[in-house]
């Protein structure tokens, strides 16, 4: 692997709407509340409690429908020094690898962390970012993965683009 000082300087920058700092939590938060609301709906059906069923269905709609999520702008940059997300810098040493994937009509960059204590980071790519050029650049620093993004994560990203 070439050293960063041997490489020509590069700078990929983009900003896009995304719920990177989602006001209602991440995938684990949605799974927990999905189980709670699903259990509530099931309980309301078993006990024939119509009012509780209506309340649980409203909770399901308001909590999970993407229309009610406040999307924020994500600013990303890939430079010789590492990756920057909304002003937070990730050095190359903190990242194990990457995967570029498409989910419907949107492209994402998934960063695999070195530490098992951290979750991977999904970054939506803007339409003007050259995916192949970005892939070639990232390969000089990181290992490229195939299939690192779970089916559950892909499904979540399809619902909340």
CATH topology of the largest domain: PH-domain like
Helix content: 25-40%
Cα distance spanning the termini: 34 Å
CATH class designation of the largest domain: Mainly Beta
Which architecture of the largest domain would the CATH scheme give at its second level?
Roll
Query: What's the order of the H and E elements?
Result: EHHEEEEEEHEH
Instruction: Please tally the helical runs, counting DSSP H or I stretches of 4 or more residues.
Output: 4
- Helices and strands: which structural class? alpha+beta
Strand content: 25-35%
| Most strands sheet | 4 strands, antiparallel
The tally of beta strands, per DSSP, is 8
Task: Give the arrangement of secondary structure elements.
Elements: E1 11-18, H1 27-46, H2 50-64, E2 72-79, E3 82-85, E4 88-91, E5 95-103, E6 106-113, E7 121-124, H3 131-139, E8 143-144, H4 151-159
Parallel strand pairs: 5-8
Antiparallel strand pairs: 1-2, 2-3, 3-4, 5-6, 6-7
Helix pairs in contact: 1-2
Search tags:
alpha+beta; four-stranded antiparallel β-sheet; elongated; 161 residues; four-stranded mixed β-sheet
Please characterize this protein's 3D structure:
The protein is of the alpha+beta class and 161 residues long. The protein has two domains: 4-21 and 72-159, PH-domain like (Roll), CATH 2.30.29.30; 27-68. Helix content is 33%, strand content 29%. Helix 1 runs antiparallel to helix 2 (50-64). It is elongated. The relative contact order is 0.18.
């Amino acid at each position: 692997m070439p050293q960063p000082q041997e490489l020509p300087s590069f700078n990929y920058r983009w900003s896009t709407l995304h719920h990177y700092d989602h006001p209602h939590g991440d995938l684990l938060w949605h799974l927990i509340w999905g189980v709670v609301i699903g259990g509530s709906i099931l309980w309301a059906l078993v006990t024939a409690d119509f009012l509780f069923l209506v309340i649980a269905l409203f909770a399901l709609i308001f909590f999970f429908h993407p229309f009610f999520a406040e999307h924020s702008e994500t600013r990303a940059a890939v430079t010789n020094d590492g990756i920057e997300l909304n002003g937070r810098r990730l050095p190359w040493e903190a990242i194990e690898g990457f995967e570029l994937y498409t989910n419907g009509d949107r492209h994402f960059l998934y960063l695999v962390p070195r530490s098992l204590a951290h979750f991977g980071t999904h970054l939506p790519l803007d339409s003007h970012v050259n995916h192949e050029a970005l892939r070639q650049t990232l390969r000089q620093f990181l290992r490229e993965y195939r299939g690192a993004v779970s089916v559950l994560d892909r499904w979540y990203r399809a619902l909340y683009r």
